[in-house]
Amino acid sequence: MSLIVQKFGGTSVGDIPRIEAVADKVARFRAEGHDVVVVVSAMSGETNRLIELANQVQERPLPREMDVLVSTGEQVTTALLSMALDKRGVKAKSYNGSQVRILTDDAHTKARIREIDDERLRRELADGYVVVVAGFQGVDDGGNITTLGRGGSDTTAVALAAALKADECQIYTDVDGVYTTDPRVVDGARRLEKITFEEMLEMASMGSKVLQIRAVEFAGKYNVPLRVLHSFQEGPGTLITMEEQEMETPTIAGIAFNRDEAKLTIEGVPDTPGVAFAILGPIGAANIEVDVIVQNVSHDDKANFTFTVGRSDLPRAEEILRQVAQELGAREVSSDHKIAKVSVVGVGMRSHAGVASQMFEALAQVGINILMITTSEIKISVIIEEKYLELAVRALHSSFGLDEETLEEGTA
Amino acid sequence: MSLIVQKFGGTSVGDIPRIEAVADKVARFRAEGHDVVVVVSAMSGETNRLIELANQVQERPLPREMDVLVSTGEQVTTALLSMALDKRGVKAKSYNGSQVRILTDDAHTKARIREIDDERLRRELADGYVVVVAGFQGVDDGGNITTLGRGGSDTTAVALAAALKADECQIYTDVDGVYTTDPRVVDGARRLEKITFEEMLEMASMGSKVLQIRAVEFAGKYNVPLRVLHSFQEGPGTLITMEEQEMETPTIAGIAFNRDEAKLTIEGVPDTPGVAFAILGPIGAANIEVDVIVQNVSHDDKANFTFTVGRSDLPRAEEILRQVAQELGAREVSSDHKIAKVSVVGVGMRSHAGVASQMFEALAQVGINILMITTSEIKISVIIEEKYLELAVRALHSSFGLDEETLEEGTA
After folding, report:
1. Would you state the pLDDT for residue A31?
2. Does B308 lie at the interface with A, CB-CB under 8 angstroms?
3. I need a labelling partner for B297 at 20 to 30 A (CA). Which of A45, B98, B191, B340 fits?
């Protein structure tokens, strides 16, 4: 008998038949003798309905009241799922964030969890109840309702698993695990049995949107074994754990990619200290996130500076950059939104030389020009023209031996 | 400057434009310098939508979870109204029942308020906030969410007004006050400027469904001045207060009536002690409310026993009564659902003799036969055939001088 925290997202509890299916699943785990805490999101569409109501009232709704409003969505699901469990003869009780109590800071709409009081939950578990907790929400010191921001239910689940020292935190999704790359791009993409927290972080931040990044960070920090599974299909999913020496790690875990980037270049800026800050300071001040940054010296002792931002931020970033260019006396500002980022990710990279050269060779063999390169300890990313994205992903997937064996494809 | 508690029901906050209109009204009171606490219901239709979801899951939903579910409805309204006030430059904060804290017993779906902690509310008011409180809900000793049952928002408003010693508790509705009788039945029905708690109780229980009975009882007990007003029309409404000696009370405040009754008679039961209990005990045990009860002796030293119940309870009550009749060896059981109750209500009745005879005379003059009679200190009720209801109400309204003076109608 073990203690399991299970999280079901908005699609998994999107209507009553799905809530019933989730209740069946939870009841099975309970019947096997496990203690179960279930974390649920709002029924799909409900959060948007509530936000729409708020937007009808106020262009920029009061953050405190926004949290009061949207937190009702998860509360509704907890009640309905508890009823569905009760109908199956499974004792169940709902808890909202304030009742648990999940103490957060007071940053409404994007609060962070500070502390979880697990006493009431432990008592309910000891009394034989399945506890159904509203994800995504908490309460601050002053008793005000807070929310963790979109997708925060994953974080709630991991934080509860950490506080309760659960044996496993299961995140139920609409995919049956984490793949070596997007199966829609590469036919031979394989489900991974295991992946490390670090690899998962690099995959997640690159657009493999299976899990919320904060949840993975949290799980890594508190070493909570995390498993990604499909809500309505059977299967072992993918286990996300600490790196183990004895784990037979292939060099590369997967190929991640992201189309949602745009590239900005400012040419002919003075090659002096403080220039990078002069350029990126105003961008950061405008709350625009910058991803890849590359700087190199041009022929006339001036520097060229290139960085990428989310595609929707491009117009605003470009406007800011043109002002900066005037102030710095730069030669030119240019932008390109038809780019994509492709990354090779794997903890094995640390101990294996030659991953970078193998990557560049594979891309060269299919005639793809690399526009930018960045590297981290377990990841190498390149920016290429968007039109080559699928070709690049397939070439790399094959080159690093990730294709499903049964397919026996050669290297492209 | 005074402290006012204002309550707006589901129809008054039924959509965003109406919530905006309520915000306008609250803002005007605030601008006049009053401290304002607003109690709101769920947007009309929302509570039914949530109950419908629960019924899809469970035939008899878990009461604890039912409360968790439906309490979200009011919470949504508090957030939206707070936003609407903020948009108007009025500082506002929402509070749910648990945050206030409105402590109740643990009788889920029909909890009773035990105690209100008004400290946080007083602090918010002192800080210049309008406090928007979710009606209809509270929290029990164990921190579980409870609800007061349908219409409980009125009770919340009165209880808050009592705790805060508010100068007035204003209940906004879809009528502009309490009338001498139903204006749909009598053209000359007049809005009352004032009415006593006791009169209001007798009127409310008779189907003038302006206010929840519990709320009026509560207001009377704690002497909270209660005012019934129209949500979207200007006007003084009707003030419900303690009986004052100097208040120029007409003998009769109004004519109440109720069509929703049915009559049951059991004939020929033994005229011995304990018979009334033998008959009504099983009816009460089945949670059927009994209204008028009349017993008298028949010619053969047996008693005849007649009582009325809500019309929808008639089939069940009759079934029970037939069993009782067998056990008691009664002669016959009969029922009639085509009856109605008409009542004359007024505290002035206490000091004025002759109200009963005036009532019976007025009915006799228009040829209406009285089936049953019951009296209380400030009310006389008769049961008549339903088809005579309108005729009876008009005759009594006119006989007791309640018709609008401008109409100058003669007595029927």
Report:
1. 96
2. no
3. B340
Q: Which residue of A has its CA nearest to B61?
A: A83
Q: Does B26 touch chain A (CB under 8 A)?
A: no
B109 touches chain A (CB under 8 A): no
Query: What type of residue is A89?
Result: G
CATH placement of domain B245-412 = 3.30.2130.10
Q: Which of B46, B49, B76, B109 to mutate to test the interface with A (most CBs of A within 10 A)?
A: B76
CATH, domain range B3-173: 3.40.1160.10
Alpha helices, H only, A58-107: 63-87, 97-100
Phi, psi (rounded to 5 degrees) for A211: -130, 150
The number of residues in chain B equals: 412
Strands (E), B85-167: 92-95, 102-104, 113-116, 130-134, 137-139, 145-147
Nearest chain B CA: its distance from A106 CA (Å): 15
> How far from B340 is each of A150, B262, B390, CA to CA, in Å?
57, 8, 10
Is the CB of residue A137 less than 8 Å away from at least one CB of chain B?
no
With 60 as the cut, is the pLDDT of residue A358 above it? yes
Average pLDDT over residues B230-241: 92
pLDDT at B410 over 50: no
Which of A217-221, A303-307, A345-349, B262-266 is modeled with the greatest confidence?
B262-266
Half-sphere exposure of B326 (CA within 13 A, CB side): 5
Nearest CA in chain B to A59: B87
Chain B residues inside the 8 Å CB shell of A82: 62, 64-65, 68
**In chain A, which residue's Cα lies nearest the Cα of B82?**
A65
> Cβ–Cβ of B76/A143 closer than 8 Å?
no
Subunit contact A80:B99, Cβ cutoff 8 A: no
Report d(CA B23, CA B82) in Å as an integer: 8
Cα end-to-end distance, chain B, whole Å? 48
Are the beta carbons of A330 and A270 closer than 8 angstroms?
A: no
Q: Give every CB contact of residue A287 below 8 A, 6+ residues apart in sequence.
A: none
Q: For the whole prediction, is pTM greater than 0.90?
A: no
Q: Which of A29-38, A395-404, B269-278 has the highest mean pLDDT?
A: A29-38
A54, A78, A120 member nearest B68 (Cβ): A78
In the numeric block, the tokens 């043109």 are attached to A322
The whole-angstrom separation of Cα A37 and Cα A134 is: 11
Q: Does A75 touch chain B (CB under 8 A)?
A: yes
For residue B412, give every residue at least 6 positions away whose Cβ sits within 8 Å of its Cβ, in sequence order, or none: B362, B365, B366, B394, B395, B398, B399
Residues near B351 by Cβ (< 8 Å), separated by ≥ 6? none
Of B19, B78, B84, which has the smallest distance from its Cβ to A68's Cβ?
B78
Give the range among A3-12, A221-230, A274-283, B318-327 with minimum mean pLDDT: A274-283
By CA distance, what is A67's nearest residue in B? Answer: B79
Q: Where are the domains of chain A?
A: 3-173
Nearest CB among A53, A98, A143 relative to B16 is that of A53
Q: Yes or no: say if B71 and B40 are a contact pair by the CB < 8 Å rule.
A: no
Q: What is the DSSP string of A164-230?
A: HT-SEEEEEESSSS-BSS-TTT-TT--B-SEEEHHHHHHHHHTT-TTS-HHHHHHHHHHT--EEEEE
User: DSSP assignment of B184-220, as one string?
Assistant: TT-TT--B-SEEEHHHHHHHHHTT-TTS-HHHHHHHH
pLDDT at B54 over 50: yes
Higher pLDDT, A357 or B319: B319
Residues 261-290 of B with CB under 8 A from A: none
